[in-house]
Amino acid sequence: MDSLLQQISAGLANGGIYAAIGLALVMIHQSTHHINFAQGEMATFSTFIAWALIQHGVPYWIAFVITVVVSFVIGVLIQRIFLKPVEKAPVLTNVIVFIGLLVILNSVAGWIFDYTIKSFPSPFPLEGMFLPKYFSGHQIGSIAVTLVVLLAVFSFFRFTPLGLAMRAAAFNPESARLVGIKVSWMLALGWGMAALIGAVAGMMIAPVVFLDPNMMAGILLYGFAAALLGGIDNPWGAVLGGVILGVLENLLGAYVIGSDLKLTMALVLIVTILIFRPYGLFGKPIFSRV
Question: Which stretches are transmembrane (predicted)?
Answer without folding.
Answer: 6-28, 60-83, 95-117, 137-157, 185-209, 215-232, 239-257, 263-282
